[in-house]
Amino acid sequence: MSRPRPQTYPPGTNGTHPTQNARPAFTHPPPEYATLSVSTLPEYPSAEELDISNEVAGRTYGGASRPRRPRRTFVFKLGSTNASSSSSAQSWLSMRLMSNAPVSAQRPRYIGGEDVEGSVILNFEKPQTVSSVSVMVRGRVVTSSVADGSHVFLEHVHSLWRHDRGESPPSVTVSDGAPTAEIVKGKLRGKFEWPFSFPFPKDFPYFGKRKGSGETLFTTPQTLMERGVNATIIYEVIVKVISGLFRNKHKIIANVLYVPSLISPELPILRCEAYRTGLYLCSPLEDPDGWAALKPLNIRISARRTEGSSNYTKIEAITATCTVYVAKPTTYTRGTLIPCYIVCQNTNPDPNQPNHLLRTFAGQECVSLRLKRRLVYFRDARQGASVVARDPTAVSSGKYAGLDDMCDETKKVGPSAVWWSPRGAGSGEYAARANVVTLEGEMHLDGDLLPSCDVPFLLVSYTVSVDLSQSQELLVECIQDASNGSPSPPSSPVTPTSRRTSRFTRSVDLRDKQGLSKCDVSLPVTIVTVKASGPHPIGYMPRAVVQKPDRSEVQEVEYIAPLTHWN
């Protein structure tokens, strides 16, 4: 009788049945994932890096020229996108960039019209074939961390040297005059340096795809890197060297900062005199051409009823017309201020009753003036590029406002205006009127505001907006029909209920649910980067305190990286 043959198992199954540990067979190949960027993120620019209001060369005021900031040298080497202050590490390819960037800046900064000045250095220990050396300024908009989630809108190439032209590369000499570089059988050996200098493009061409559409120039936008905004505009200075028998491409990509030179118009004569002599500004009554009026507000002011209070027993509510003014021209330099004025007039004055409600309304500052920024861009840079190729006004016209691919964000930026009792020329005439109260104020602008911009892929616009707020003593509401002089029947005041709220909720006045109209009055303004020649706006009051943003919410951060497909 023969012994039973032992069962054998395939190798790697550890003596178990093949169906127990066998790997499942794939019927389809594994999915392909998008390539993500792993490059170093450029740092967010600071307000000091973006402030160029006093740094435009050649501008003078009062007969004295402003001293230019000393130029700094930034060194970039092959394999790095960050600038280094030391050039001790050896690299056969490096680039130097000169810039007027402030001391705290971590990258070169260029202003519109400034020269991109520097040099490209090659250092070969052995003879090496080099076909060409060139430098390029590139601008692109990035909306995604995916490798193809960007669109190049600016390319300016500056050729330094080409071998096929028969040009002789410049050689670098040492102090004793001995050459440190030579050409051996058409190959380069030693140290060579090509200086370059060309203006940073102040505008870029755009070619539409419509029949008959020609080239259109747009102002080059500022570098955009802001937390919470999923669109980034970055600029790079790239050096490319083609070398070797197989024409290998070697690149250095340096991230740089760009700020356009947008100069505000000159101030009116009366404002210039006020700033020059240190006096207060003239009121809209004294200087009507120096102020721009927003749409008048027709408001109703009511006194809150509290127990044991006998205030305002004869007048329960009044109607008033409130007009807000901002100084002309409505183009302002960031980092300065916007002068403003408020004139409130009782439309139904009672000669037997003083204007307690109106004066209390002005004293408690129930009118708030804020700056709002609107930012419009495509979520997908590539898709946005194809859309604007067919319609360059796709972003600014609002035709695609309802699409999911279009991002349209509006938010308040900077502090609200601060107010005080007017003291300038013309304020006494307002004060003489019993049914009129006035306030003078100013709104301080942050120094790192994005300048106004309208290009095919980005819209940055600003408005000065008026908001009405309640107080502990008054209820304020905006009446819909501002043309109707007769007041609507006053509603009985309601004391707001007090209740505990969490971080994510807030107490709401019961009157907010009674269909009261909201204030919707605004005026478009323009924000630029450079002050005009002559006297500059002077602040009379410290800026208002800005509430700290809520850091409890997590914001998405998009990763960006230099492109490497430039051929």
List keywords for this structure.
mainly beta, single chain, six-stranded mixed β-sheet, 6 helices, 567 residues
Describe this structure in words.
Pfam families: Arrestin_N. This is Arrestin-like N-terminal domain-containing protein. There is one protein chain. The radius of gyration is 33 Å and the shape is elongated. The protein is mainly β and about 575 residues long. The longest helix is centred in the last third of the chain and has 10 residues, at about 380-390. The strands form six sheets. Strands 15, 16, 17, 19, 22, 23 and 26 form a seven-stranded antiparallel β-sheet that branches. Strands 18, 20, 21, 24, 25 and 27 form a six-stranded mixed β-sheet that branches. It has a five-stranded antiparallel β-sheet with strand order 3-4-6-10-9, with no helix packed on it. It has two domains: about 45-80 and about 90-260, Immunoglobulin-like, CATH 2.60.40; about 270-480 and about 515-530, no CATH class. About 5% of the residues lie in helices and about 35% in strands. The chain has helices spanning about 20, 45-50, 270-275, 355-365, 380-390, 425-430, and strands spanning about 60, 65, 70-75, 95-100, 110, 115-130, 130-140, 150-160, 180-185, 185-200, 205, 215-220, 230-245, 250-260, 290-295, 295-305, 315-325, 330-335, 335-345, 365-380, 405-415, 420, 435-445, 455, 460-470, 475-480, 520-530.
